[in-house]
Amino acid sequence: MSAAIVKELEHLLGRERCLTGPGQVLAYECDALTHFKSVPLAVLLPESTEEVQEIVRACVRHEVPFTPRGAGTGLSGGAVPAPGGVLIETSRMKRVLHVDVDNRIAIVEPGVVNAHLSRDVADHGLAYAPDPSSQIVCTLGGNVAENSGGPHCLKHGATAKHVLAMEVVLPDGDLVQLGSPAPGGAGLDLRGVVLGSEGTLGIVTKITCRLVPVPPCVETFLATFDEMEAACHAVARIVARGVIPAAMEALDDRTISAVEASVYRAGYPEDAAAVILVELDGHPAQVAAERQEVEEVFVETGALSVETARDPEHTQRLWKGRKGAFGAMGRLAPDLYVQDAVVPRSKLPEVLPEIGRICDELGLRLANVFHAGEGNLHPNISYDGRNEDEVARVVDAGRRIIELCLEAGGSLSGEHGVGLEKREFMGLLFSEDDLETMARVRTAFNPDELLNPGKVLPTSRACVEVKPVHRLPGAPT
What we know:
17 helices; disordered C terminus; alpha+beta; Uridine Diphospho-n-acetylenolpyruvylglucosamine Reductase, domain 3; Uridine Diphospho-n-acetylenolpyruvylglucosamine Reductase, domain 2; single chain
C-alpha cells in the first residue's frame, strides 16, 4: 500500500517534491512543540491548488492519512503527521496573487510568510495586522489554521478578523470558496467554521486578507516595576480607563535576564522584577490623550521608570527583545514547554503567583512572558527531557497550571491551539454535548477522518496515533 501511493505521488510531483528519504522526512517529524513526533511516510511539496487536490484524492484512494503543514512553527503538535501518513507542506505556495489598494485586500497563497505580506504592501501605506512572535517565518496558511494572534491583536484582533475569504480543498479533494471579500455575505459562515479548525476540516490554498492602513502615529513605552503584581494591576487599570493599546506585553525578571544575555538583547533593565511594553497607535491627538492616561496609571501603580522609544530603531529593539524571548529561553535548558492558557485580566495578580508557587514546589525553572492585555499567559518551563524525574514534574506542573487557569474562568488556549497537547483537557472546558457537536461538524467535513486525524478532540482512536517523546499534559498513552 505505501509503495503504491509513494509511486503515484512521485509521478505527480517528481522525486524532488516528493521526499521519502529517511534523512529528508525526519526533519518533518514534529512542529515547534518537539514532545510529539511521528516520521511521515512522505513529505509532499505542492506548488498549486490543483496539485493539493490531486494529492488528497490519491490519499483517499489509498486510504492514507494526510496532514497539512505550513512552516512548522506551531506549539501544540497540530502539524505532526499520523503514523503511516503523508505530510502536505504548503510553503512553496508563496505568491501574493493580487493587492487591491482601494478595497484594502490582498489575495495570497498559504505559504506567504506573515511578515512578508506587510513588507509587500508597505509602499501603499498598508499592513497586515496579526503579528505572531514567529511572524518572520510562520506562514499565513498556518495562521488561518490556528487563528493565530500576536502582541498587536489586543487592539486589532486575531487572524479571524483579518481573513475575509478562503479557497479550501476538502478532505475528498473537492474545492470550495468560503466567505466573501464583500461584508455581510449571505448564508452560513463556513469561513468561520474552518478558520481555527487546526487543519482538521480542509486545506486552505488561497486566502483573501484584510489590510489596514499604517497608523499615522505610533508611540512605544517600557514601564519598569519592582514586582509583577503591580505590573498586572497597571494592565487592568489601563483597560478599565477605556484605553485599548495596540499592544501590551509583560516580561518577568527571568525572561529579562534570558533576553539580555542573548542575541535578542533589547536594553531591558536587568534589576527589574517586571516590565510592561505598551504601544499606542492612531491619530496623533488620540495617541497623546491615551499616553496621558497610561502615564497616570503607571504613576498610580508605582512604576519605577517609564522609557519612551526615541526613534524607529529604538522601537524595533524593544520589540526584538519581546519577540525573541522564546528563542532566548533556548540557552537555559535543552527543552522548553510553553503553556498558552488565558485568564481574565483581573485575575492576573492572583494567578501568576500561583503558577510560580506550583513551579517552585516542583523545583522547575519558570519564566513568564505574555500578552498581558488579553490575559493570554505563556509560562515557559525550561527543563532537560533526558531527566525522567524532571519530565514528570513538568507534566504535573502543566496539568495544574491548566486546571488553575480554567478555575479562574479562563480558557485552554489563546492562540497556540489544542492539537495533540491539550485535547485530553477539552472535557474540562466543554460538556459532552459540546464535544459531540464539534465531532459531528468534523464528521460532516471529514467523514473518513483521513485529514489530520487525532487532533483537537479527545477520542479513544487518538490514543494510539502519535507517540510523544516526553509525557506532557494531554499526551496519548
